[in-house]
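The passage that follows is intended for readers who have already worked through the single-chain material. We present the inputs for a multi-component assembly, then the predicted structure in tokenized form, and finally a short commentary. You are encouraged to pause after the input and sketch how you expect the pieces to fit together before reading on.
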Amino acid sequence: MQIDIRTTAVTPLRQTFGHVARRIGSGKPASRYQEATFDLQPEVNFHYRPYWDAGHELYDASRTAIVMDDWYACTDPRQYYYGAWTQTRARQQEVMERNFAFVEQRGLPELLDEGWKRRVAALVLPLRHVEYAANLNNTAVAAYGYGAALTQAASFCAMDRLGIAQYLTRIGLLLDSNGSALLDAAKADWLHAAHLQPLRRLCEDLLVVEDWFELLLAQDFVLDGLLYPLVYERIEAEFSREAGTTLALLSGFMDEWYAEHTRWIDQQLKVVAAASAANRERVAGWCRQWSERVRAALLPLASEVFGDGAEAVLDELEAALQARAQKKCGLSWAPEVAA
Amino acid sequence: MSTPTSAPKKLGLREKYARMTRDLAWEPSYQPKDKIYPQAGLEGIKIEDWDRWEDPFRLTMDAYWKYQAEKERKLYAIIDAFAQNNAQLNVTDARYVNALKLFLTGVTPLEYAAHRGFAMVGRAFPGAGAQVACQMQSIDELRHVQTQIHTISHYNKYFSGFEEWRHMHDRVWYLSVPKSFFDDAMSAGPFEFITAISFSFEYVLTNLLFMPFMSGAAYNGDMATVTFGFSAQSDEARHMTLGLEVIKFMLEQHPDNLPIVQRWIDKWFWRGYRLLTLVAMMMDYMLPKRVMSWQEAWEMYFEQNGGALFADLARYGIRMPRHWEVSVKEKDRLSHEAWATFYNYGHAAAFHTWMPDESEMAWLAEKYPASFDARYRPRYEHWIAEERAGRRFYNPTLPMLCQVCQIPMVFTEPDDPTTTCYRESHYHGEHYHFCSDGCKDIFDAEPEKYVQSWLPVHQIYQGHCGGGSVPEVLRWYRLEAGRDNLDYLSSPDRQNWQRWKGEAAAG
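Having made your guess, compare it with the prediction:
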């Protein structure tokens, strides 16, 4: 027997908002991502020039040298709007909560050698400061960038970086039985130890880059593209060989996050480079220039672990980044000729 | 490398949170600090020690993700159920939907502006504690703009006037009132922005902007919007604590900050109050089932709560904002003067207007015993008679706008509600006009800023808005004449509503 629920049928007059329909075609239902993203940022008829930047409008496409006909070509392949982003992160956060509880309940930190912990403090924990710089840099893109599609993803990225800095802080606290001595040692190294000074200088130099797209590229493509594989693959593998997988368990979020982050940033470079020859040339130039600098900044850190083999490790990572740029973004650049 | 020698000590919650936020920062040595934070000193605010910043709330990202995701899951479940059940048919009356049109075109874009503005100050402030608090508000505001769009998306499918909200916000005459408000704050320096938005707007006035719309939704059967309101409430509470902390922090840091902060409080109180004109008329005229009158809301949320707040701030040397007493004198006329204006210009508005019916006039007379029957009812009765005689009144000339708040100059003298208030200033050989002493003061303090205002009426006369005639301007607004504008009585919204409700009753 068939059971009928009687409902009122009312016919919709339209499927979505005008600005969304003009992009996806009229008569089509829009996704939540599309309605939450397209054309959100005002583009015309601003009232006052900013006191802090009288040379530009409040939102101004000329704050970068990159030129796009339509910044909404820079969509997010993950289709993150706030709800999708925060729910994904909440699921990952649950896994991390279990991992931290696992390590803590089994007393794993007490089993680890103090010298090994000190090495973590010298090589991994200072990255919480790098993440803090990444948080500020992505916040700058979210603030001064153009088009809600790109800037909202930069906002999510900025908060992700704060989350990662906080996971690293928790690792420091956990390895020190909830004390702060390891974090203090790591911060002292960040400020003074020779193997971290080039990286700190790079971070401070990034904080004063004025072109927001250059900043996005230098931070999220080049620096992350070399630092994450170096630390969370190569160095972490060494640490696992020495002391088991405790650290890998506590940094699981970073691996998963990085894989997802590269999908987003690759797409941005690809779209921008494909828009014009001038963009392509500029983006490739920035990649060349910043990969040279990032590589030099990471060498002393890599040398702490790989000694004379550090150059070879960085050669591999740089080749991998170039291959990724070629394959995912259609970008290539020749290394700078040594003077 | 040194080896840690001290015995591990357990951290308290407060110190643990400091480790999770401000301890991430360091004193730079390769770049000068004023190059990293070039906006910090622009406005003359003196901060001696950012470490004295008290975190207004302590929320790490993992906890943030967990709580916010839970709220999002619940909210989207309700939004989905609302759409599936065509619950838009359960609102009190289709006139109510016009309050939502005003909200989507006027308020939702401000949530986006707040998202970007808090990203700006979240980067500009040199203290990591303040950075984190502002960045968190920045993504909260993104949450609000997106959940509002998703909530109201369903109404857009069945009612007109929502469709071009993004396009309209940057062009339509009355929407330059909210737009210029936020443009003003964002184009100021970081300390003024946060005083304007976190303190004057969020802390002092949220209960008068956001809450009337949400309470209106609750009273008028709009389950989706009221669920959004409840879901945003805990975010708003965080934003309010940030607003208060900012003011106290600036005042505690240096005595020279007091006169600057007081000037900003004066300015942003008046700017915010003028913006609330739109809310006042919404509360008194656009809700078929009313929550409270504008006058009652102003008495409760500003005169009582705001008065207590400023009494508390007196120990820092802060006094009540200038011209607050004018707002009290205007409380029994503000909404009526505003609704009459929109009734006049209903052909150029993207929502419908109408005259209150007899029971609504009785409510207005009861709530405004000193003013309604004497001053506003006779005017309405005249317009109703005109409408019945086939001469529904629309004002064919464009109004003069106030150079600062950008509202048509329709307000009356503080001490004489029957005389229109005009003020003017002269600057570099030009005359500028204002609706009030409050707006004139704001102009006179920063004329070089307010001469830049993109005034919709001036822009129309200068030929920047699609042409010189009303139909041309409406086309430029993407406002479909006969569908999105004019009186509710003649609207397709009303015809559809009657058909749907009739069919629903028959079905």
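Commentary: The two ends of chain B are 80 Å apart (CA to CA). The longest strand of chain B covers residues 416-420. How closely did your sketch match?
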